[in-house]
Every structure is written in C-alpha cells, then in structure tokens.
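Input.
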Amino acid sequence: MSDVEASGIQFSILKRGERDPRGPYNQDELLQLLNADEIGVNDLVYYDGIGEWKPIHEVFEVQEQISHFVDDGQDTQRVGVAFREVSNVVGPGESIYYIAVQAKVGLLSKTKLCVIVTDRHLFLMTENRRGYELEAHPWPSVTNTLMRDEGKGLGTFSILLGAERRVDVSHIPLKQVHRLFQLSQEMKEGVAP
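Output.
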C-alpha cells in the first residue's frame, strides 16, 4: 500500500457506472472483492483522510507491484492473480521476488502453473476448473532445483523435495527458467543448514 495504513481503516467503494457506494470494508474484504472480480482497480475508493474518491489502483500500489514481475514477458493477468493469491498467505515481512508463468501447454490443457519465489518459500500455483491452488515449500525443504532447455525458447524448472519427490514445471519461457534457477540458488545459499 502507498499512503494507506491497513490498521482499522474502513473503505467505501463506488463501482464505475453505479450511483450508490458499497461498504464499509476492511482491507482484507477489499482484497477479497478484488480477487473475486466483484470490483476492479479502476473503481473508486474512499476512506477518512483521503479527501476525495480515488481509483483503487492509485491508493493501492498493486498494479505497480505486479508490473515489477513482468520483465521477462510474463502474462500480466496471470501474474496479477498469482501475486494476489500468494499475498494472501505470505507471512509478515515475507517478500515476493519473482513470478514465472507457464506458457500455454495445449488447447485441451486446463491446468496452468505459476512458480513464485519469496525469500521464505517456493510456491507452485495451479489454475484449474475449481479456481487456484497453492502449494508452499519452505526453502529448507527444497533439496535442489534444476533447469532444462526444451528447445523453441521453452524450458523445464524442476524442484527436488527431500529424496522422494521431484516436481517438474515444463513449458516455461527459457528466460524465466534461468531467472527461477538463479533466484532459487541464491535462496538456498541464504538458508542456514
């Protein structure tokens, strides 16, 4: 958030095209409405001390934060969803460093993956018919990470969890695979044994 402190503020929302405001909502309720697409970042928000109605994206720096993660050609909409989903579960002081987005796998494929790197976890977000599922792996549980070039500008990022489990995320643009691998190595080095 920019000039908004989350503690105890009640927000009113005025959707574009509507005459009557909704609310009041606290910050968590506001994020839930955004996640459910019941309100959008261009709808207006008001709270005591702001002085006037302003677009949500001007008050909350979500768009700016999301644009930080699309340097390597990621799908902005998918990055936005991953950012919101992970933001809901990260601990206090935990920072999101990178979000990689799986390229389209095929016409019939219903599952899409995002790999999210924070300073404390490696998250896998799966999109399916029921919505989104997050799988969190604390860095100490990640034994190793690997990358493989699939050709045609795509690669596979592999996560080794202990001695028993390996998770492969294929069809990620190669530039993103390289960045995931680099960050994962840095995170593993920063984790105390």
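The first strand starts at residue 11 and ends at 14.
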